[in-house]
Amino acid sequence: MANIDYKKCPQNDKFEFAFIGRSNVGKSSLINMLTNHKGLAKTSSQPGKTQKIIHFFINNSWYLVDLPGFGFAKISKTMRAEFSKMTKDYLLKRENLACVFLLIDSRIEPQKIDLEFMEWLGENRVPFVIVFTKTDKLKSLELPQKIEIYKKTLLETWETLPEIFITSAEKKIGTEELLDYIGKVMKIV
Ligand code: GTP
Ligand code: MG
Q1: Which ligand 1 atom is nearest residue 46's CA?
Q2: How far is the CA of 5 from the centre of ligand 1 (A)?
Q3: pLDDT tens, 82-130?
């Protein structure tokens, strides 16, 4: 189910979990990993593949939502400018949105656009967690270092850290942790 307007999304009587992040970060790949469907969400090495709000109904009980990637248009630098109204509307107004999964490429240093996006989520009281992607591309010693750097950067503006997940769609790392977390949130929300 693909939509460009949050009002046209499926009935909002089930919890949903939205996946967002810079274009090419691996959102669609992660969704395929979680659902165990290789071709469910279309993946591509070309940025900007997902341009709609796409709902996947999981286990007859909750929705997983693939949102368009942000930050691939080189024209504007700040998140505010690049972040489309469609996604913003969705994040602010979708009542059954239980949690946003912000995907971050584990290989790169903290990016302004991601940090600004987190601030925006915080200001608007949208619950979120961080999901590091493509960890298979890092050497085993590099990964903890990168995460540490990220945490340090976050602690410059945040009092408490959000939940952090380590994943690799390539090596199928993190499925259980993410699904457990989703189950837990559905029980307490
Ligand atoms: P948009 O929809 O364009 O915003 O991209 P996306 O975030 O959905 O990324 P997508 O899942 O299409 O993946 C982008 C590229 O990264 C593809 O070439 C994937 O094969 C690759 N990729 C995604 N996840 C991983 C991973 O865990 N490990 C490795 N090595 N490559 C990955
Ligand atoms: Mg995608």
Answers
A1: 3
A2: 25
A3: 567 888 899 999 999 999 999 999 999 999 889 989 999 999 999 999 9
pLDDT at 19 over 90: yes
Atom of ligand 1 nearest to the CA of 25: 7
Give whole-number Cα distances, 176 to 7, 15, 26, 129, in Å. Answer: 32, 19, 18, 15
Residue owning the nearest CA to atom 22 of ligand 1: 26
Q: What is the mean pLDDT of residues 64-92?
A: 70
Look at ligand 1, atom 32, and give the residue with the nearest C-alpha: 134
CA distance 96 to 173: 27
Tell me, what CATH number does 31's domain have? 3.40.50.300
CA-proximal residue: ligand 1, atom 28 (nearest): 134
Q: Please give the torsion angle defined by the CA atoms of residues 57, 179, 15 and 60, in that order, rounded to the nearest 10 degrees.
A: 40
Give the total number of structural domains in the chain. Answer: 1
- Record the tokens describing residue 125, joined without a space: 């009281």
Ligand nearest to the CA of 20: 1
Q: Domain range spanning residue 84?
A: 2-188
Index of the ligand 1 atom closest to the CA of residue 171: 27
